[in-house]
Amino acid sequence: MVLSELTKGDRAEIIKINADKALRDRLSSFGVMRGEELTVKGCSLAKQTMKIEVGSTLIAVRADEANKIEVKKLNNK
Q1: What is the pLDDT of residue 47?
Q2: Which domain holds residue 61?
């Protein structure tokens, strides 16, 4: 499952980031890396961007970037 398949309120653990080094480095600078948990806070129309929270950081992720982030959906608390 990839990040773009999640909807608002879903929680997930990042399994793998299938991207080039530049994108992986940029995402990791915001805390988006393997093993971290995230929460989907919202999506734009047509899911062109997603707002996610990793730790205490809110990040906007483009649809093409979200398709490169493999996640495992967690049960919502």
Answers
A1: 84
A2: 3-74
